[in-house]
Amino acid sequence: MLAQPRERPRSVIRAVCVAVAVVAVAGAVAGERWPAVTRVVTAGFGRLSTPAFETAALVALALAAIGCLLLWRRLASFPAGVLRADSARSGRALLAAQYLNFSLLFWIAEDNHWRGRLLRSRPWPKLPVALALAWADWRRLGRRPGPLVMLAVAALVPALLGIAITGRGRPDLIAVALIAGAVAVGAQGTTATKRDQDDPALLRLLGVDAGQALVDRAVLPSLLSGCWLALALTVLCAAGALSGWLWPLVGFVAGPGVAAGVLRLARTARVNPADRGPDMPMGNTPPWLISRMLSIIVAVIGALPLIAALLKGEVHATTVIDQCAASVIVLWVYLMIARALSRQPLSSRPNM
User: Fold this and answer.
1) pLDDT tens digits, residue range 57-79?
2) What number of H helices and E strands is found in the chain?
3) Is position 43 within any domain?
4) Is residue 33 part of a domain?
């Protein structure tokens, strides 16, 4: 808030946040590779006395109080333009919260980019109509590559997760991190899919079959998930957590299987706290939570050969073939079911 009125302080704060993240990752990698660094840091903290820690706590408390005071004084001169722009975008933010699909928030940047601009006339892309609609997500990622860059850096997380928590490699934690990362990356390519689920007016206006549009829009999340899995597994191989260089290939072909769960997650209905689901021993489970859990299960099934290979700690050529078959079958079955359901009336469709 203190940096909102001027562009330069905002850039400085962003640079500081990036620097802190880089130092944290570098420290984690250095601590794993070079134990001497960890010993030096530990010895440095060990030489500090109790009064030194008390002084540091008092300084932190004083800085927090000064920050609160500065924020209070800045409220009188806070730029109204920021509030006005945020209120204009609140509909998009509320929609993202209702769907628990926060990749929609990146459309806020798109709305802000195009609001008030004079749009130039451009010819229709030389693509089929359904594929031209899917091209919107490709263009959006090209204009806003920031989220993809951050998620690409997050490919280091699976290599660090098990060692950071337990001090040794844990294949189960690595598998969880890989699936979570692949779903998060694939979701960056499903924003238009969620928009069509909320308002299919554009598809009806252009006379595009909803099932065919979904097939064309499955290409981008498949590539995103597959490329991220290949990158993360390459890092794991380079770090020595996995042996053999077939792992990146297995990760790449697992992308379409994970994309089936990502597409299902993007097409789930809004979160409605009033909906009640089946009663379970731990209480009532809302339908929106069940639907999202099923989407994650679909993603896990699509990458089941990869997960099994991670738990065993070995990969073979047959693993690549099994993963190809699993990805094709899971994605094909999901698209066939979704295309069949898209021909039903909107009010009678389940969350697929």
Assistant:
1) 888 889 888 878 877 776 666 55
2) 18, 2
3) no
4) no
